[in-house]
Amino acid sequence: VFTDPLSPCGQILALHFSLPTVFFLRGFPCAIDVHAAESPDPPSYVPRMYSVYTDHMTFSERVKNFLIAISEYFTCSMIFSPFETLASEFLQKPMTMTQLLSHGSVWLKRTDFVFDYPMPVMPNMIFIGGINCAKK
Predict the structure, then answer these.
(1) Among residues 27, 36, 61, 110, which is most buried (max CB within 10 A)?
(2) Does 135 reside within a domain?
(3) Does any domain span residue 136?
């Protein structure tokens, strides 16, 4: 199933029918994509998506980055709770958004690794950056 993880209905159906999933995305809030693929994501090293920080942060920037990560967790838990309820009812077992997306076979990330911050990624996360990157 070729689907967008922001609307996980395709992933719910793929799990129900035991089909492999290919995710196509630019970025995912709250780093759920990173956690679902089990990539390391320490807030002291990896800056949050909408922060202006790089991987070279001062101590105060690292603390602010950590606070952003905590606030993202609570915000995204509220935003994605309807999908978690839907998946739990349809699949007949408790599911979180991270558990739901952890069954993805391949993650096609529409970003260029050079434009974003350096971070460790898993082998099933493939950067396909040229399709939406404007020339400077």
Answers:
(1) 36
(2) no
(3) no
Structure token pair of residue 110: 């529409």
Percentage of residues of the chain with pLDDT beyond 90? 23
Name the residue among 73, 61, 67, 74 with its Cα closest to residue 30: 73
Helices (H), 18-118: 32-36, 59-79, 81-91, 97-101
The pair of three-digit structure tokens given for residue 65, joined into one six-digit string: 């980055």
pTM here is: 0.75
Q: What does pLDDT average to over the chain?
A: 83
- Residue 101 is part of which domain span? 2-127
Give the pairing type, strands 106-109 and 22-25: parallel
For residue 3, which phi and psi values (nearest 5 degrees)? -145, 165
Token representation of residue 76 = 């995204």
Cα–Cα dist 46/118, whole Å: 8
Q: How far apart are CA 96 and CA 88, in angstroms?
A: 8
Query: From CA 119, how far away is CA 116, in angstroms rounded?
Result: 9
Is 132 part of any domain? no
CA distances for 46 relative to 12, 37, 85, 120, angstroms: 29, 16, 30, 9
Structure tokens at 133: 């990157």
| Residue 27 covered by a domain | yes
